[in-house]
């Protein structure tokens, strides 16, 4: 194991993609969590070489991704586009690092575990390719609450609609919304067909339509029969994490003009009759979940309040009117914290504990 002079015997961590939307939140989390790491090496593309970023109160210079940059790394977090992870994660693993990958490159590989520490921490120990995958942000924003309900009631079906924040599309998504908002703020736009589109222009960034003053029923790329890649990820990844390969899942992913924090409506059907009281008891005590559910007092989660926090927020808990085996929920989760960086950090901490011989799971 590589060691850093001041932190002898501790694992060396590489953050690949340290300059991105996820990477930036990762550096905050690493600064807030218990300091278990030796060296923390910050890696990005050659565009960012020499930039200095703060982590653990120290300025660290960014280096370019290369074989050399991965020398002596024990745990490598990959917060980079799919194609970069696909090429470089196996290189890091071959050099002896345990990779925790945030991209979509390996999530459905049967030799790569897909891990949510509150739901399936044991899966992190079996990693034949030396790679552990982090689920996508939409799945992660709901799966901790669903995992807790599944453990008690036995999940049988999921029907989900997402209300996804623009930072799910990285820095470019945030820049696009902010630019569009500046063009429509203080106007009377939003009253005639196409007026918002004309105001924001043809460059809609990573989105197919204007996102300011709008709701866009699309996230990701086109898959078979009109489904989007994001919808397929929610279905496939929920099944894999929960160990329910045949779970019926229907998903519609929608982009909304929120900077950060994904919301979802969830219709979850279980093995037998459920009660709201029992569901509330489970959610109120589940690690990583906050039950915030008192509509009479105007209390339910919203992205504006959940952003920047760690838990999965759950409100509007109801039993389905026409099915006593089903629950309706509204869930909010910060897509850059639990939805990506936090979950990756938690997995990396499990691995570090294992490497240090303390047994993490
Ligand atoms: N945003 C979310 O909510 C979210 C949630 C879960 C998972 N993810 C996944 O996490 C990954 C990163 O997403 P993001 O939103 O943080 O994207 P982003 O803001 O666009 O950042 C991309 C990062 O990757 C680096 N990078 C790009 N090309 C590279 C190359 N050829 N070599 C080395 N580094 C390279 C960039 O470095 P430079 O600054 O030098 O270009 C930057 O640090 C993606 O796979 C994404 O799907 C994102």
UniProtKB/TrEMBL annotation:
* Semialdehyde dehydrogenase NAD-binding domain location: 12-127
Q: SMART domains attached here?
A: Semialdhyde_dh
Locate the residues binding NADP(+): 19-22, 47-48, 167-168, 335
Entry keyword annotation includes Amino-acid biosynthesis: yes
Q: A single Gene Ontology molecular function, please?
A: aspartate-semialdehyde dehydrogenase activity
Query: Which reaction is this enzyme known to catalyze?
Result: L-aspartate 4-semialdehyde + phosphate + NADP(+) = 4-phospho-L-aspartate + NADPH + H(+)
Provide the E.C. number(s) assigned to this enzyme: 1.2.1.11
Q: Which InterPro entries does the UniProt record give?
A: Asp_semialdehyde_DH, Asp_semialdehyde_DH_beta, NAD(P)-bd_dom_sf, Semialdehyde_DH_NAD-bd, Semialdhyde_DH_dimer_dom
- Provide the residue positions that the database annotates as binding substrate: 164, 255
Q: Which UniProt keywords apply?
A: Amino-acid biosynthesis, Diaminopimelate biosynthesis, Lysine biosynthesis, Methionine biosynthesis, NADP, Oxidoreductase, Threonine biosynthesis
Query: Which residues carry out catalysis?
Result: 137, 262
Protein residues bound to phosphate: 107
Please provide the Gene Ontology terms (biological process) for this protein. Answer: 'de novo' L-methionine biosynthetic process; diaminopimelate biosynthetic process; isoleucine biosynthetic process; lysine biosynthetic process via diaminopimelate; threonine biosynthetic process
| Family in the record | Belongs to the aspartate-semialdehyde dehydrogenase family.
- Role summary: Catalyzes the NADPH-dependent formation of L-aspartate-semialdehyde (L-ASA) by the reductive dephosphorylation of L-aspartyl-4-phosphate.
**Protein's name in the database:** Aspartate-semialdehyde dehydrogenase
Supply the source organism's classification.
Bacteria, Bacillati, Actinomycetota, Actinomycetes, Kitasatosporales
